[in-house]
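Try this one yourself first.
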């Protein structure tokens, strides 16, 4: 399947590392010019350099902005005012006992995990509709459906993304713009390594720690391993392509069979 995104411009939020960086690389390989986003300009420059080394023919535009704020969204729009593909990947997570999550933490998770994507969609969707083509994607999580007891604020924020995605898909109905969410399962990133070691013996070697985490905390995974970021990126690149023109308003799973359901 030829997933040609030549001539398209994409913005991937929170893409200085992990899943976001893998998505940025995948979109660039398909021919898109990709806005790479992070808060720290120096770190972002380093990340863009790594992406250029990984995809020598790729074109990457650093977008230094804290998208968890309205001011950051404005800064991103100044740097990259017009995109064809918007991938709302930015998110934070962390283990906190349910009764210890403060009001401020609830607000912070909503601002970063939900409102960041809402603001950018509100800015870019009208232009996409005018052109008659566009892709908006929200990177959700299995935690949206199977809310983890150790981080319910994260799960609730990802559940909200499923509703946000479906609602904006209705707003884009009949326009040639598709809006979807991707339900990503437990994925191997630097941040997840830290998270795993919060829950299992920190003295264990990584391979043993990963197996212990999946066995003790994610036993319903059919894959029985963490997903690699590139496996998430493969689905995102497809959904960003012309070949996915009939998929909209959907919550598409790349979760390793973690969610115990035959429906998305």
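Now uncover the answer:
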């Amino acid at each position: 399947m030829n997933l040609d995104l030549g001539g398209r411009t994409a913005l991937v939020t929170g893409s200085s590392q992990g899943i976001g960086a893998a998505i940025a690389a995948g979109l660039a390989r398909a021919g898109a010019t990709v806005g790479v986003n992070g808060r720290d300009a120096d770190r972002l420059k380093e990340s863009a350099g790594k992406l250029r080394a990984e995809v020598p023919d790729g074109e990457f535009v650093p977008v230094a902005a804290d998208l968890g704020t309205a001011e950051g969204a404005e800064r991103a729009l100044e740097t990259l005012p017009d995109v064809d593909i918007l991938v709302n990947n930015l998110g934070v997570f962390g283990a906190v006992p349910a009764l210890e999550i403060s009001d401020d933490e609830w607000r912070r998770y909503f601002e970063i995990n939900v409102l960041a994507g809402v603001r950018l969609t509100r800015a870019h969707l009208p232009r996409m509709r005018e052109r008659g083509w566009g892709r908006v994607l929200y990177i959700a999580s299995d935690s949206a459906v199977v809310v983890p007891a150790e981080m319910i604020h994260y799960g609730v924020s990802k559940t909200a993304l499923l509703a946000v995605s479906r609602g904006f898909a209705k707003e884009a109905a009949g326009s040639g713009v598709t809006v979807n969410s991707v339900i990503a399962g437990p994925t191997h990133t630097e941040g997840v390594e830290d998270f795993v070691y919060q829950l299992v013996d920190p003295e264990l070697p990584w391979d043993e720690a990963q197996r212990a985490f999946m066995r003790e905390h994610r036993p319903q995974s059919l894959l029985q391993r963490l997903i690699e970021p590139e496996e998430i990126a493969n689905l995102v690149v497809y959904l960003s392509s012309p070949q996915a023109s009939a998929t909209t308003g959907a919550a598409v799973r790349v979760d390793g069979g973690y969610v115990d359901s035959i429906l998305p």
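Discussion: The CA atoms of residues 87 and 99 lie 32 Å apart. The chain has a mean pLDDT of 96.
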